[in-house]
Amino acid sequence: MKKKTLYGFFFAVALIAASISFDACSKTCKMCANNSYENGNLTVQGTETEYCGTDLIAKEATPDVTIGNVTTKVECH
């Protein structure tokens, strides 16, 4: 009985240690900006902002917007 309790204790400690190692800092983050191009030439470079996790996925999924000859797109690196 003591062995089962001891194994359970070590399993719980290992589980807690593993969950701590996967904290919010391990998220994938990128710097993104809304840049505008006119006829393929960069005309306005937006301010870069850091996006992480689901916010980054949503930002990268933003479609390009074209009005006349100007196309604005999200660019992340």
What keywords describe this structure?
77 residues, alpha+beta, 5 strands, elongated
The count of β-strands is 5
Distance between the termini: 55 Å
**Amount of helix:** 25-40%
Shape: elongated
Structural class: alpha+beta
Mean model confidence by pLDDT: 82
The total count of helices amounts to 2
Based on CA atoms alone, the radius of gyration comes out at 23 Å
Strand content: 35-45%
H and E order: HEEEHEE
Which regions are unreliable across 5 or more consecutive residues at pLDDT < 50? Answer: 17-21
Biggest sheet, open or closed, and with what strands and sense?
5 strands, antiparallel
Short description:
This protein has helices spanning 2-21, 53-60; strands spanning 29-38, 41-44, 49-52, 65-67, 70-76.
3D structure, described in words:
The protein has 77 residues and is α+β, with helices and mostly antiparallel strands. It has a domain at 25-77. The chain contains two helices and five strands. The chain has helices spanning 2-21, 53-60; strands at residues 29-38, 41-44, 49-52, 65-67, 70-76. Strand 1 (29-38) and strand 2 form a beta hairpin. The longest helix is centred in the N-terminal third of the chain and has 20 residues, at 2-21.
